[in-house]
Amino acid sequence: MMGKVYRGDQIQDLAVTKTTGNIIVLPKNHYLVKCAELPLSSIVAQTKSACIQCKMCTDMCPRYLIGHKIRPSMVMRNMFREKDMVDNEEYEAVFGEAANCCDCGVCEMFACPMGLSPRKVNSFIKGQLGRRGIKPNRNKNPKALEDLIYRRIPTERLVSRLDLMKYYHAHANECITIEPDCVSILIKQHIGVPGTVCVAVGDRVQKGDLIVQAKEGALSVPVHASIKGCVKLIDGERIVIDKEKE
Ligand code: SF4
Ligand code: SF4
């Protein structure tokens, strides 16, 4: 629900990183792929014409339920005048709550009966807030709503809504060990700042050796060699290691 869709050539450049939760391979015409590919212009046009203000997106929003100031239905309601709003104070008052959205996708994938995408609209608004230099205040001590417990979403219904039921109980029966001759390891694989590369081209490394040192005093993590071999290339983004022949 929070993931990104990659296809074709994009997949060649991807790597598993410390923030990779899971990978789902879907047919090109799957519901989730189609949702992800809907252009923003269509999303905004649909919002203006089809939101019935039922408020389901707000009532089921996990951030709203745990007490943050966020009402996606209000953002959706006001989208018709977003483009023409010049006053930043007014913009913050009307759209500032979008900054509290955590992109969970409950609103678009489960709550909205009209198939609209408050999540993507919020994401667009967050970009606009940044462009306008608006930093809405955050409630650092949210208090959960008392009826939160009654608004939980049954997992199976959610999986069904996502059209993933046929994969739900599928499990890998076999694990295959892959032993590549060369690995390309990203220097930054996490949120925060990248660490400092602590190897040079030509260095020999053991599996598990430190190759990127975390930055002191910052949100940063170390990176280690995944194979025994020789460092072949280091660029701004990755370290390439050739496997040492036994
Ligand atoms: S995506 Fe944002 S607005 Fe939608 S339910 Fe999640 S937190 Fe709420
Ligand atoms: S759930 Fe959908 S239709 Fe209802 S208020 Fe939210 S965006 Fe509008």
Provide structural commentary.
With 246 residues, the chain is an alpha+beta fold. It has 2 domains: 8-167, no CATH class; 182-243, OB fold (Dihydrolipoamide Acetyltransferase, E2P) (Beta Barrel), CATH 2.40.50. The chain is 30% helix and 11% strand. It contains 10 helices and 7 strands. The strands form 2 sheets. It has a 4-stranded antiparallel beta sheet with strand order 1-7-6-3, with no helix packed on it. It has a 3-stranded antiparallel beta sheet with strand order 2-4-5, with no helix packed on it. A hairpin with a 3-residue loop joins strand 6 (229-234) and strand 7. Helix 2 (40-50) packs across helix 8 and helix 5 (72-78) crosses helix 8 (118-132). The protein is globular and about 65 Å long. The two termini are 43 Å apart. 20% of the residues are buried. The mean pLDDT is 93. Bound molecules: iron/sulfur cluster (2 copies). One iron/sulfur cluster (SF4) is lined by residues 51-57, 73, 76, 111-112, 114, 116, 118.
Order of neighbouring strands in the sheet with most strands: 1-7-6-3
Low-confidence stretches: none
- Count of DSSP strands: 7
User: Into how many domains do the coordinates divide?
Assistant: 2
Strand residue content: 5-15%
What is the average of the pLDDT values? 93
Distance between the termini: 43 Å
Largest sheet: 4 strands, antiparallel
Structural class: alpha+beta
The DSSP helix count reads 10
Run of helices and strands? HHHHHHHHHHEEEEEEE
General form: globular
Query: Which distinct ligands sit in these coordinates?
Result: iron/sulfur cluster
